[in-house]
Structure formats: C-alpha cells, structure tokens
Amino acid sequence: MCVLLEKAGLIDAVDVIYGTSSGALNGSFTAAGQAALGATNYLDTSNPQFANPFRMLTGRAVLDLDFLFEELIFNRTPYDPAGLAAGPPFRALSVSLDTSELVVMRDFADVGELMAAVRASCSLPLLADAPASFRGEPMSDGSLIESMPYRAALADGATHVLVLRSHSAGHRMDDVPRALLELARRTAHPAVVSLLRGRPERYNADAAQLEQAGAGEPGLLQIAPPAGAAYLPLVGTPGLGQLELSGRAVRQGLLVGATAAAAAFGLPAVDVVWQPEVYRTT
C-alpha cells in the first residue's frame, strides 16, 4: 500500500506518518521516500536466517533482528537522510516495559536513533531477543497496546487519519493461548503477561471502530485487503503467514496491498507492483 501511494505521488498529502511493529518499518521507509526499497526487506527476510522457530529449542530468539537492522538495513538498504529530512515526520509506537504504557517515539536526533526506535517498535516478546532499549528505557513491540496507531494520531490532534491494514476489515484476534501466557510468565519481562492477555480485546475494539468508520467518521478511513487476502492461497505454496519464508508469497502480498490501495483511490488496477530495487552490498 505504501509503495502504491508513493508511486502515485500521494505521500505529499500526508503530514505525519505513524507506525507500529512492522508498520514502523514500512512507515519509516515511506517517510524517507523509499517505500519500494523498504519492501525489499520482506523478500530478504523470507528465509530461515531471519525467522526460524526451531531456534527456540536452543533458547535463541525466533527472529534475528540483528540480521534485519544491522545486515540488511544498515549495510544494504540504508535510510536516505535527505529523504527523511524532506519527507513527512515519522513517529514509531512502542510500549515501555517500566510503565506498561504506550510511547510515541519522535523527534529523532539522527538516522541511528530512528533505527533504534523502529527496532524497539518491532521487538516482539517471545519471538525477538531481549527487550530493545530506546533512550535508556526498555521497550517492547507497540502492537501490544496499539497495532493500528490511529488513536495515537488522533491524540496528537490529527483531523484526518488514513489507516493501512494488513488484515481484512472483519479480522478479529483470538484470545492468547494459556500456554503462551505461561511461557511469557516464565521467560519474558514481568510486564509482558498482562499486556499479552489484554491485547486481543484492545485490537478487536480498534478493528470494530475502524470497520464502522468512514460514513460516520469521515476523518477516519481505512484501506484493508479483501477478506482472506492476507493469507491468500497460492499454487504450490502455503498462505501468507506472519513469519513468511516464501518469496513468492511475499510478492503476492505486495500485489494484494497495492491493489487494495489503488481501488480505494480509484486508480487503475495494478498488474505489477514489484520492480527490482538496486541497493548496496558489502
């Protein structure tokens, strides 16, 4: 969706970009005018080097955020400082593990601090390594409180908010399994258990409000893929999962998002969204 809006020149109409978790990754590259380049990170992480559930058997993190932020982003797909200076301000959402409250990270001193904020926003408990730190405070994934950060934008005084969804409008989150809560109780930061337990209720309330918005609240609009598209079955491959290892499925997911954004703005149908992006290697 971000790639489509960027290619159509619509990002110029945006005053501020907010992002949570992988949305912080998308939003930060879009704020820099590099949405298409940022999309390459999803292809480059569709391999066991980044996401490997079997690492849990040896006590290691499922997600290798060092690989994403240090090897891929820092070395291969770096942020453009000039683009960040010229683009809309970017704000990343995380959760303070000291207070169990949402933190909107903003006003970054440099690219390094922006990367630290995005990493903190992406620090999924039980999947990532030890809690990330931002400005000396331990942080966890912002989606524990606000997966779709429209409330943060409204709290900052936004009059019109466009929400880009990776799930369909009718998607709702199931309760967190008891076994996962027990694992969090034994291995994660003490604040994580209560945050995880309350996450589905918060997510579902936000999703319900967004589904009712539009006609009743013209200042709040969402773009969402059609039902089932977030896990679109592909010939010879599984559906698109959260820890996706199929590059083909990732490309199909990009096309689903671009198609939904094009339809929302009355633009022609999208046939091809993926174009190779050149990035440096070491």
Structure, briefly:
This protein is of the alpha/beta class and 282 residues long.
Cα distance spanning the termini: 30 Å
Spell the H/E element sequence. HEHHHHEEHEEHEHHEH
What is the helix fraction of residues, given as a range? 25-40%
- The shape is globular
Total helices: the number is 10
DSSP E strands, number: 7
> On the 0-100 scale, what is the average pLDDT?
89
Largest pleated sheet:
5 strands, mixed
Q: Which stretches of 5+ consecutive residues score pLDDT under 50? A: 232-238
- How does the helix and strand content classify structurally? alpha/beta
Radius of gyration: 18 Å
Beta-strand share of residues = 5-15%
SSE blueprint and pairings:
Layout: H1 2-7, E1 17-20, H2 22-31, H3 35-44, H4 65-76, H5 81-86, E2 90-96, E3 101-105, H6 111-121, E4 132-134, E5 137-141, H7 150-155, E6 161-164, H8 178-187, H9 192-212, E7 220-223, H10 247-264
Parallel strand pairs: 1-2, 6-7
Antiparallel strand pairs: 2-3, 2-5, 4-5
Helix pairs in contact: 2-3, 2-6, 3-10, 8-9
